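Lab notes, practical 5.
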Amino acid sequence: MADIRIAGIMRAGVFSPNHIGNDAAIFNMVADQLRKRGCEVNVYTEEELVASGGVPEPYIFNMCRDERSLEVLARLEDEGRLVINSAYGIRNCVRDRMTRIFMSVGTPYPESFIVDTDQAVKTMLTKAGVAGCWIKGGDVHTRHREDVAYARHPQEAQELLQEFFMRGLKTAVINRHTEGEQIKFYSVAGTRFFHWYYAFNGGHSRVGLSLLSQNDEPHMSFNADAFHRVCNRAAEALGIQIYGGDAVVEPDGKVTIIDFDDWPSFAPCRQEAAPIIARTIMSLIKKHNQE
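Output from the prediction step:
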C-alpha cells in the first residue's frame, strides 16, 4: 500500500484553546498508524494549505477549522478528492448551522434561539420562560473560553450578548440550560468505538453502566448503546465521521446533546482511538476508489 499517498492537515493553534498538545497528539498518532499500514503521509499546517492553495495527495485527513482552509478543502472535494472530515461537515459544526440541523432532524438538543449579537433578547427570553441559559458564539469555531458563557437570567444574557458583539461575533446561539449530569463522549462513525465519561469524575467508561463518583454518590444512569446510536445519527446529519462532544444526562435518563465537535482531541482515549481512526480512513479510501 506504499502507493497510497495521504495528506494530513494539522489544526491551527488558535483553534485549539487549551488543547494544542492534545490535538497534535491524536493527529500525529493517526499519521503514524497510517504509515504503519504502508501509506505515505505528508503533514501540512493550515497556513501551508492556504498559502499553496492545495496539496498534491489524492486523500486528505484534517483537523482544520480556519474558514480559509475549509474553502481550499471544499474545492478539492468538489474536484473529486477524498477529505476526512469533509470541509462541508466541519462547517456544519459551527453552532448556528449545527443548531438548525439538529432542530430539523430531531436530535435531542436544548431549546435554542439563533440571534444576532446586536439583537434585543431580554423580552424574548422572559416570554419563553428561559432563566439560566448558555450564550455561545454562533458563526465561528470556538477560539476562546469566552465564546461560551453562562447567563443566570435574561438581563445577564443580554449583557453577555453585547460583549459578544463588541468582540466581533455576529451571531450567537442561546441554549436553555439543561439540568442534569454532564458527560463527554468520543466516537468514530461506522465503528463500535464509543468512549464516554462523567465530566466531573476522574473515572471513565465505555459501557452503559453508571459509575460511582469520588464521594460515592451514584451517577445518573443512561443507556449508552442507545445514546451512541443517537450520536451516530447526529454525525451523519452533520456530515462528519470523526467526532465527539458533550451531553447532559437528565434525572429521567434522557440524554441531551449540548455540544458536538468535529475531530476532538480524544485526550482520555487516544491510544485506543488512533488505530480505529486510521482503519476508518483506510476503509473510506477503499470505498472512494470503488465508486
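Observations recorded by the TA: The longest strand covers residues 181-188. The chain has nine helices and twelve strands.
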